[in-house]
Amino acid sequence: MKRVRVYIERSDNGQYTATPDSDLQHSISGKGNTREEAINDLKVAYQCLTDYFDSEGTSYPTIEFDFIDKNI
After folding, report:
1. Cα 52 from Cα 48, distance rounded (Å)
2. Can you count the helices (H) and strands (E) in the chain?
3. Using CA atoms, how far apart are residues 72 and 58, in angstroms rounded to an integer?
4. What is the mean pLDDT of residues 65-71?
């Protein structure tokens, strides 16, 4: 299992983003009106990737996310 730091930031327009700081095989991120929405959006993106790779008969690395607030 790979541990990945995810930075949660709030933009000037009030939106939140969840962005991993690691080189993953594929780029994923999350966005939302709240911190929780951004985190959930990222988790959905990750699940979509793992589901796709599973359907293709391959696997995507198992990742554990560490969420870090930045500029909130």
Report:
1. 6
2. 1, 4
3. 38
4. 93
